[in-house]
Amino acid sequence: MTIVTLGIDLGKNLNSVVGLDADERVVLRRRVRRATLAELADKLDPCTVAMEACCGAHHVGRL
To answer: For residue 27, what are the domain limits?
Structure first.
């Protein structure tokens, strides 16, 4: 499973995460708690991360 784009929809406690491969097929779809979002991203190979731009996105983006 090679993810080239990781999309994150930020929520207050739960975040929806979608990983796309090079052919733009969904290879990962999961809801994770905010506290474990960074752990999930650390386990992945380097990829493009796209997230919504709200006030909460700045905090998670810095992680």
So the answer is: 5-55
Q: How many domains is the chain partitioned into structurally? A: 1
Structure tokens of 29? 């779809």
Instruction: Say if residues 15 and 24 touch (Cβ distance below 8 Å).
Output: no
Could you tell me if residue 62 is inside a domain?
no
**Does residue 11 belong to any structural domain of this protein?**
yes
In our burial notation (b when 16+ CB lie closer than 10 A, e otherwise), range 24-60 reads eeeeeeeebebeebeebbeeeeeeeeebeeeeeeeeb
What would the two tokens of residue 25 be? 């097929």
From first to last of its 63 residues, what are the pLDDT tens digits of the chain?
699 999 998 877 888 999 999 999 999 999 999 889 889 989 999 999 998 766 666 676 676
- Which pTM value belongs to this model? 0.77
